[in-house]
Automatic annotation (TrEMBL):
Protein name, entry field: RNase H type-1 domain-containing protein
The organism's place on the tree of life at top rank: Eukaryota
Species annotation: Cannabis sativa (Hemp)
GO molecular function, one term: nucleic acid binding
Transmembrane regions: none
Length: 110
């Protein structure tokens, strides 16, 4: 059986973020969970936002929130885990995207 969550190395924190779209109610939400190497919950947060957005934009919008929480935390070694390949590729790219998605990605890089 493949585990659904793999703990970070000793003395590290893993922050997982994910998004969900509620198309019927025109909302979207994202959540953040921070756990230590023993799997103990350190912090969690969910946000429900009004409006319909494309999945990639919703996924990108969770990253600045996660980075802000990481920066304001006492954690020193953090792994941020996100399941959106589009967002990861955009974060690694040097191409400037002129769109709302690009603006969110730029915010993540600053």
């Amino acid at each position: 059986m493949v585990p659904s969550w793999v703990s970070p190395r000793q003395n590290r924190v893993k922050v997982n973020v994910d998004t969900t779209l509620f198309e019927m109610s025109h909302n979207f939400g994202f959540g953040l969970v921070a756990r230590d190497s023993n799997g103990i919950l350190l912090q969690g947060r969910t946000v429900l936002a009004l409006g319909q957005v494309k999945p990639a934009l919703a996924e990108a919008m969770e990253v600045p929130e996660a980075l802000s929480r990481i920066k304001s935390s006492p954690w020193h070694h953090v792994v941020l885990e996100i399941d959106s390949l589009v967002v990861v590729q955009a974060l690694q790219s040097s191409v400037e995207m002129i769109s709302l998605f690009g603006l969110v990605i730029k915010e993540c890089k600053e």
